[in-house]
Amino acid sequence: MNFLWQCCFLFTFAKALGIPEDDISVVCKEHSVQVKWKLNKSMSVNPTRLFLGSCFPSLFSNVTDDGADAEFYYPISECGFKRMATWKSLIYENKLTYRPLPKPYPPSFTYPFRCVYDRPKGWTPSFQSLASNIIQGHGELAFHMAILNHDFSGPAQSNVFPLGSFVPIWAGVDQQAHQPLVLLLEECVASTTLEIYPDSLTYPLITNKGCLMDGKNSFSSFLPRYQSSSILLHLQAFRFAVGQEVYIHCKLIVWDPDNLNELKKACNYNKATGEWELLDDPSQNALCQCCDSTCSRHSKRGTDSVPQGLVLNSRLGPLMITED
Known about the structure:
It is a single chain. The chain is mostly beta strands. It has strands at about 10, 25-30, 30-40, 50, 60, 65-75, 80-85, 90-100, 110-120, 130-135, 140-145, 160, 165-175, 180-190, 200-205, 220-225, 230-235, 245-255, 265-270, 275-280, 310-320. Strand 16 (about 220-225) and strand 17 form a beta hairpin.
C-alpha cells in the first residue's frame, strides 16, 4: 500500500460459546495483523487444524497438558482477507477457525474480526474497489463490485442518491487463464445492516436465480454487456429505508456462457410487453418465463451446482437514499 494510514481500530466478536474473548488478541497494524490465540487442550492436538482465513499458525508454542498458544503474523494482503472500501473507511475482514474434521464438515469454532481504518484523504480506489475478493477454485478468480458514477466511467463520488435516481452498479471477474466466463447476479437484496440476520429488514432486488424483480415496480434494468465477464445494473433508487444507511448484498456467479439455463441467467422485465427477457440472448427468453413462479431445472445432470470456487457473496455500501 502506497498511502498513509490515518488511524485504525479493531472490532471483533465471537460466534462460539464457552471461549473467553480474552483468550484471543488481535492487533491491526498498518499493513499486517498480529493474532495471539490461547488454546484449550482439545484445540492443541494439531496446529494444522487452526486457521486465520486460509493461513496456518506462524508459531505454535507453550504446549502443556492444559493447552498451547498459536500466533499468526501475516500481511493483510494474504490469508484471504476481504476488503471493502466505503466513503469513510477501509475495512478488512477475516476469521479464525478451528476445524477438527476435514471439509465438508464445518469448523467447530469461528471467530470473525474486522480491522477498520480511516480512509486517507485523497485516497482513490481502483475502478473495482468497493467490494472485492479473491477466491480459489480452478486457478484464481478475482471478483469485483462497485457503485459507479452516472456514466459508469469511474467510482461514485457520493453515496447519497435521491429517490427515483439511478444507482449505477458494476460487477466483474478477472478471467485470467480461464475459458470465457459469463458473470451473473443470482440474488441481490438491500438491507439496513452490514450483515444479513434472520430479523434484518430487507428489500429483494434480484431473486429466483437471476430475475431482476425490482424492474417490475421501477425502471431498474440490466444494461447491455460490454463483455461477458462483467455486468452493469441500473438500479433505480427505491423507497426502502429512505434516509437510513443501506447495504446491497449480492451473490455473484460465473458460468459457461454457452450453457445458460433456468438457474443461470440474467432477466429483465419489459414493461411495454409485460414479458421477461434474457439479457444475453433474446432468442432464449423462454429461460425467463419462470421468473413469476419458481425457477428450477427438470434435469439435474451436473448443471444445478456451480463448480467450487466460482461463487462469491459480495456487499456494497453504505449508501443513502433521500427524498430531497
